[in-house]
Amino acid sequence: MPDTEGFVRAAHVLGAGGLVSFPTETVYGLGADARQDAAVARIFEAKQRPTFNPLIVHVADIDAAKRYVIWTDLADRLATAFWPGPLTLVLPLRQDAGLSPLVTADLPTLAIRVPAHPVAQRLLAEFDGPVAAPSANPSGKISPTQAQHVIDGLTGRIEAVVDGGACGVGVESTILGLGDAPTLLRPGGLPQEALEIALGGPLATRSEADPLTAPGQMLSHYAPGATVRLNATETSDHERLLGFGNVEGATLNLSPAADLVEAAANLFLHLHALDAQSDAPIAVSPVPDIGLGRAINDRLRRAAAPRDH
Ligand code: AMP
Ligand code: MG
Questions:
Q1: Is the pTM of this model over 0.85?
Q2: Is residue 263 located within the same domain as residue 184?
Q3: pLDDT digits (tens, 9 = 90+) for 208-254
Q4: Range of 251's domain?
Q5: Bond from prior residue into 306 cis (ω within 30 degrees of 0)
Q6: Residue 217 lies in a domain
Q7: Residue 63 Cα to ligand 2 middle (Å)
């Protein structure tokens, strides 16, 4: 945990329009003052992120969120249950929000969340403003779950990294659209089942074919240099196995005990390690599609998707 002076300096860099990477419980974020066009533009430049892909705004608490989105009873119920935590709510943007239009890619809605990580909380309290923060990795590459991953991917493009150790959850937030019906826009660190219990019924899920409800959910993403093959129950000689559960011959194992929470925390960590090791193809053991397994499988499918570069 950085000292008080470290937080003051990091908040100052944000206020001056700089880019500060900081840990959240999901992955490391790349933060900028969401009200400053030039600062937000630098996020897209540093990540080489397409500008039609909107950003999530991070705020300190529910009261802060209400300044930027039109709040509803349902938003209040979910935020009270799950914030701070790995849930992003997409709500109508307030006309007087004062955010850079680059944040929302000009959409009439805003994705917003309150992160739980103590370092993120301290930084947001010190900065006292909205922080736009996507994951702190070059666009399309593996998300960072340690400060070193951020340094490896973005050195020379950002002003600072606040080091808060490894991220506990390890996959990005669950994104829930709160339009007509609550809709799961991206599976993530809060299991769908937990949301369904809170909502008292099944969630609608986004259709892959609907770019309007989920802008920027590119198929190829989180990609290591090597090719990735999913649901591998056996491997060939040249492949490296990223195991799950009690499997033999794994180069690395997401969770030998088949624990999905542990597997989520290890997912990007192990992909980074395999990426640093060689370009030999990666085969991945099947991961059950329940709880955090849905987010893990979503990220693995994107890591395995055909690349456009
Ligand atoms: P990242 O910050 O890299 O985790 O990506 C944020 C993701 O949030 C984007 O790729 C979008 O899919 C989603 N998102 C952000 N803003 C909105 C919005 N207004 N409506 C729907 N999805 C959004
Ligand atoms: Mg990302």
A1: yes
A2: no
A3: 555 545 555 678 888 999 999 999 999 999 999 999 999 999 999 99
A4: 228-304
A5: no
A6: no
A7: 26
